[in-house]
Amino acid sequence: MATTTPFDRMFLTGICIETALYGLNCGVFGAAMYVLIRKYRKDGNRSGMFLFGLSTAYAVVAIRQLFEAFIFSPPGTASAYFKMQTNPLAVTKLVLYTVNVVTQNLFLIWRLWAIWNHNWWTIVLPLLMEIVHTGMIHGLYPSPLITQYLSAYAVSAFIAIGVGAKPTSHEREKGFFILIVKRCSIVDWSMDLVINIGVTAAIALRLWYMARFLGEHMPDRHNQVMGIMRMILESGLLFASATIVTVSIYLSGSLDTVNAIDGIVQLATITPLLIIVRVGLGLTAGQPSKQNRTTEIDLPMEFASGPRHDESGISDDTEMTDSTHTRHTRTKHDTSSDLPKVEQSSIE
After folding, report:
1. Cα–Cα dist 26/52, whole Å
2. Where are the annotated segments for Disordered (predicted)?
């Protein structure tokens, strides 16, 4: 006896999980805006607000789907409604998901560029990989002759989940479409994973190098840089782990991949905002305590190889001239001001 896939329960579960994550997202977003407006900048964080707007729109569209499936549609047709992934709301969800993930990747690449002293060579490969990653979504339009399948191609990820993971004999007879959808979906997620792990590792490498350089002379700064490095690694691991779980579920042929995708949309927003909150509120391991933090939080966050300056723009270095005397020299360069840019790249 043929069994019917419970698309209604599957999507209902996924949307409930997504809504719970969106509630957490709202709390993290509020804390991030508090940190930015009260401590760093009055205009907040445009990229963070953009990501939060995308996740909000995704949650609204998902709730609208529930209304159409369970309230506006005839009784007993909810599963059929969710199975038809070419309707406008399903297409809108995939577009929002795509833009959200791409924006999160670009934000991560920007952070790499900032921490590596604005060296463009550090982001050439990640940008090329992101172009390939995005092309897996938009490269499925081979010719104008296939315009009638435009909506189907636009929601390739969701169609691949529903029928691409375990295509039936009837679906195999449809041609090459299901196969190309499945392959592009795997490549899309794999490239996303490589970008996240690679860029996060490059950022951590730079921070580790800075911490090693500061270790002998400024142990407090060394611990602070190491704390920020661990925080960025943890945040990157959060999103990478979610992607690995999604790909694993998909390759296993389970339809629960839908639930994972709904959650990834919210995690893609929570990850960068969580970094802002932890840096701004001093929740990173290795940061100095409140009594030891005097003007460090209020320093202008710039990333240049120079000294920590006083109000006149000059710093003091103490030089021993003999066993009983010291001489204060004025210098304009020191290696102790590299840390502010680390915080700045994390905040922005």
Report:
1. 8
2. 302-348
Q: Looking at domain 7-287+343-347, which of 1.10.3470, 3.40.1130, 1.20.1070, 3.30.420 is its CATH number?
A: 1.20.1070
Q: What is the DSSP letter of 2?
A: P
**3-state SS assignment for residue 254:** coil
- In Å, how far from its chain's centre is CA 342? 18
Cα 58 from Cα 106, distance rounded (Å): 19
Could you give the 3-state DSSP secondary structure of residue 267?
helix
For the question of whether the overall pTM of this predicted structure is more than 0.70, the answer is no
Tell me the helices (H) and strands (E) count for the chain, helix number first: 12, 2
Give me the phi and psi of 325, to 5 degrees please: -125, 155
| Distances 264 to 22, 79, 155 between C-alpha atoms, Å | 11, 23, 16
162-197: per-residue pLDDT in tens? 444 444 555 454 544 556 666 667 777 788 888 888
DSSP string, 136-195: HHH-----GGGGGGHHHHHTHHHHIIIIISS--HHHHTT-SHHHHHHHHHHHHHHHHHHH
Give the C-alpha separation, 170 to 166, whole Å: 11
CA distance 34 to 42: 10
| Contact (Cβ atoms closer than 8 angstroms) between residue 217 and residue 334 | no
Q: What is the spatial distance between Cα 32 and Cα 36, in angstroms, rounded to a whole number?
A: 6
Residue ranges of domains in the chain: 7-287+343-347
Distance CA 310, CA 317 (A): 12
Helix (H) or strand (E) holding 319: strand 315-320
Specify burial of residue 262 (Cβ count, 10 A radius: 0-12, 13-18, 19+).
buried
Grouping H, G, I as helix, E, B as strand and the rest as coil, residue 117 is coil
In tens, the pLDDT along 197-223 reads 889 889 888 888 888 777 767 767 777
User: Is there a contact between 222 and 215 (Cβ–Cβ < 8 Å)?
Assistant: yes
